[in-house]
Amino acid sequence: MQRFFKVLAICMMIFSSAVFVLAGYAEAVIPDKITTVEEIELTNTKFFNFTPVGNVETAKVGADKNLAENYEVNVSLFNIIPLRKTKVYAGKRRYVTLCGTIYGIKLYSGGVIVISTEFIETEEGRKNPGEDAGIKSGDIVKKINNKAVNSNKDISKICKESSGKELIFTIERNGKTISIPLKTVKEKSSGVYKAGLWVRDSTAGIGTMTFYERETGIFASLGHAICDIDTGINLPLSRGTAVEARILGCSQGTDSEAGELRGAFLHNDIGDLCINSECGIYGKLYSCDKNAPVFPVATSSEVRPGKAKILCSVIDGEPQYYDVEITRIIDKESKQKNMSVKITDEKLLKITGGIVQGMSGTPLIQDGKFVGAITHVFVGVPEEGYAIFAENMLAVADEVKEIYEAKKVS
Questions:
Q1: How far apart are the C-alpha atoms of 372 and 393, rounded to whole Å?
Q2: Do 262 and 394 lie in a common domain?
Q3: Domain total in the chain
Q4: Nearest Cα to 205, choosing from 336, 290, 102?
Q5: pLDDT tens digits for 164-196?
Q6: Is the whole-model pTM more than 0.85?
Q7: Could you list the residue range(s) of the whole structural domain that residue 257 is in?
């Protein structure tokens, strides 16, 4: 009898440990929200059961919402042991036209970015008015004496005309707006008043357009923000233009250096840029093919490790499909680095050596659905990189749509 209870105690301990491990596993793998679409029911798994809280139909909100919080579910182990609650977001299946094409980006900052300060030779010796005032690299100059500045010329003109009088710089720093008084100094050699600031007001380059919506012409690209090369901050966008471009060649990626697509701008402007967000560059095309084929957009819960394809341009001509593998789902809550992808297509590897600069925004397709876009290459491993979920890019595209609709009304 004593042996029986001893065995029973061991079994209970093993069972309790298993329950504890599965409960921890549930906390790790079952997110605070689950996104799905109306035609797909949330199904139970081998271990976990999902039971709606209340009446699901009553809980659902308006059908005109693209992605709506519909209901909560109780998550239980073996439909016996309650673990947690989570929210289920179910919307209508979305469809977009995939691009995979290279285009040119001309971006003009909303304000002027300070790259560094410099010393000015004056009659009284070397002075650094920018540093003395407390202006730092990465600051964004929005106004001077309450007048908006959007270019290097704006700042230069105001400083020249200051005659050494105090100027009030309105600065954006780490998301906060501050006012900084600055006195310009007269350069000895030129006699011109200067602030001693190196600044940047625009940038240009090429990237991959990911998708557009046929009905609105709203497009998404890159899957990550454009950052200033010197300061690393996301470039603020006041205006910008999407330009037709062509590929001239490609330098292959290696273990020590990232490769790069080389391209050239053509003369045709194809759209406006609207947002430089952490999920990419977004805007509106001047015209688009209303009859172009569309792909269903996958929710994050539909994406899985396994074989997939990308659609991209790495040589001049139409975009081509290449084989890849989604190696891991990393973080469903992140806005950007949601999964890791490995290039497996030998033809593509011969051309690029892996993921190269210019491929950011390359659309990723799995099981016939648009699941995301490539965003970054792994340092030292050119065949692998990060990718963003399609639903994250689509959410920002919806924000852009609202911006353009608001402009129409006003």
A1: 8
A2: yes
A3: 3
A4: 102
A5: 999 999 998 888 999 999 999 999 999 999 999
A6: no
A7: 96-105+202-405
